[in-house]
Amino acid sequence: MSGFDCRTCGQHHAEMPMCLGADAPALWYALPEAERASRAFLSSDECVIDDEHFFVRGRVVLPVDGGADSFVWLVWVSLSAANFQRMGELWETEGRESEPPYFGWLQSALPYDESTLSLKTAVHTMPLGERPAIEIQSEGHQLALEQVHGISMARAQEIVERALHG
């Protein structure tokens, strides 16, 4: 799908983004901007705040019915200090995907009616060059159901509209 007519703003958007997400975990945005440089480290894959909150960025994949592509949320997940350290030790290691999944809490506010903050997750390490796969384990939440059962292209468009326009 190359573009879509947006039901929110009434405009035609030239492209339908199939991958969206925040550049930082929710806690990063809660820090006063003037304090971020002294209290936190943020890269495209990791975030550490106050040397006590540890986050990695991963992918929640929603299969799209009849679509060649899936819709992907890039999300942040908190890990324990030990799991964060272990993941870092294996970051450049071939075969790291054989590591058992890590427990984490989703730390990205996604545009769903029910909050997505602090949903239980399993963080699956993927082969080198791939971000971790995030499995939502909070049964009954719409995001978890969409991850398991997939979404229609119309639902993907609804998600994109909400993400783009609040």
Short description:
By secondary structure, the chain is α+β, with helices and mostly antiparallel strands.
Structural class: alpha+beta
Largest sheet: 8 strands, mixed
**Count of all domains:** 1
Radius of gyration: 17 Å
How many strand units?
10
Residues in β-strands, percent: 25-35%
Shape: globular
Task: Lay out the secondary structure.
Elements: E1 4-5, E2 12-13, E3 19-21, H1 26-30, H2 36-39, E4 40-42, E5 46-49, E6 53-62, E7 71-79, H3 81-89, E8 102-106, E9 120-124, E10 133-136, H4 142-149, H5 153-165
Parallel strand pairs: 3-7
Antiparallel strand pairs: 1-2, 4-5, 5-6, 6-7, 7-8, 8-9, 9-10
InterPro entries: DUF2199
Pfam family, one: DUF2199
Protein name: DUF2199 domain-containing protein
Explained architecture:
It comes from Comamonas terrigena. This is DUF2199 domain-containing protein. The protein has 166 residues and is of the alpha+beta class. The protein has one domain (19-148). Helices cover 23% and strands 28% of the residues. It has helices spanning 26-30, 36-39, 81-89, 142-149, 153-165; strands at 4-5, 12-13, 19-21, 40-42, 46-49, 53-62, 71-79, 102-106, 120-124, 133-136. The protein is globular, with a radius of gyration of 17 Å.
List keywords for this structure.
166 residues; alpha+beta; eight-stranded mixed β-sheet; two-stranded antiparallel sheet; 10 strands; globular
